[in-house]
Specification:
By secondary structure, the protein is of the alpha/beta class. The chain has 8 helices and 12 strands. The protein binds adenosine-5'-triphosphate.
Length: 287
């Protein structure tokens, strides 16, 4: 297991054209820690991932991965991008896409071919993609392509796994399978996970902390510290209700853009007892 923080942001800020998306972000993730990143559309969740991928500069502060400034092409980072459909004519098979995620330097010259193939087969098996591994990726469904992207991100055993709505377009069974896979990467291989999502419930049992962005502000803390009526109403500066039913959380509010519930959730949710007053001074458990 790796030691020390594998991801660190200090007093970080980002913005475009004079508009600040978020600022004063202090965050350290230990190996194996699972962070869910939530917030409405345009709050800056994907931009956080771009910063950690070295694709977007901060306007203030620092971002480090495995003790070094975040940079493009770091082998310490695995990335599952937002789902987009690949063109039909993409000249890659499923297994080629996964192999692209492997860091070739880890394999000796002679062993490379065989070890790589074995590792790719293992990853394909893990995401349930063995069956279509030799098909051209452009002919696969959106969900099948997404499972391959997950396998690619896990290849090379990254210290930090960045996931941008990785469950989007997956059916329930594969949502569960991919979530379990990411969780195992954290628990067994010590990867710190940054998981951008509009829906906390599929990962609620795995999440150690939540980072919630809204209106240029943020809160960080344990799920039930942050996902509360009082805390989110303060963050949005408007009434927001957090309801809980059988361990599932539903966030409701008229002005929420990227809301967190499905019609089914709304029908089944019952009010949470949010009696505990927050004792924070604007940030919760930020560390
Ligand atoms: N390179 C850029 N130049 C200018 N504005 C940008 C750039 N990249 C992102 N933005 C803007 O920053 C804001 C945040 O974008 P981002 O993709 O991080 O949001 P998000 O929280 O991931 O949203 P969503 O939930 O819709 O995916 C948006 O208003 C977007 O238009």
């Amino acid at each position: 297991m790796r030691e020390g923080p594998v991801l660190a942001l200090h007093d970080a800020a980002v913005g475009f054209d004079g508009r600040t998306l978020w600022r004063q972000l202090d965050l350290q993730l230990a190996p194996g820690e699972f962070l869910a990143v939530l917030g409405p559309n345009g709050a800056g969740k994907s931009t956080l991932l771009k910063v950690l991928l070295g694709l977007q500069k901060l306007t203030a502060g620092t971002a480090e991965i495995a003790g070094r400034p975040a940079r493009r092409g770091s082998s310490a980072v695995g990335y599952i991008p937002q789902q987009h459909t690949m063109p039909t004519e993409t000249p890659l098979r499923g297994r080629d896409l996964v192999a692209l995620g492997l860091d070739g330097h880890r394999f000796g010259l002679r062993l490379r071919g065989r070890s790589e193939r074995r590792e790719v087969d293992r990853l394909l098996e893990e995401v349930g993609a063995t069956e279509y591994a030799d098909m051209p990726v452009g002919l696969l469904s959106g969900g099948e392509q997404q499972r391959l992207r997950a396998a690619q991100a896990l290849a090379g055993d990254p210290a930090v796994l960045l996931c941008d709505e990785p469950l989007h377009s997956l059916d329930l069974h594969h949502q569960q399978a991919i979530t379990d896979l990411i969780q195992r990467q954290a628990a067994e291989r010590g990867a710190a996970v940054v998981f951008v999502t509009h829906e906390i419930n599929p990962v609620i049992d795995h999440v150690d902390r939540v980072l919630y962005f809204a209106r240029g502000q943020h809160r960080i803390g344990a799920t039930r510290e942050v996902m509360r009526t009082s805390v989110l109403s303060e963050l949005y500066d408007a009434p927001v209700d957090v309801l809980e039913h059988r361990g599932r959380l539903v966030v409701m509010g008229q002005h929420l853009e990227g809301h967190h519930c499905t019609p089914e959730d709304e029908r089944t949710a019952a009010p949470e007892h949010d009696s505990a007053e927050s004792s924070h001074d604007g940030r919760i458990g930020a560390h």
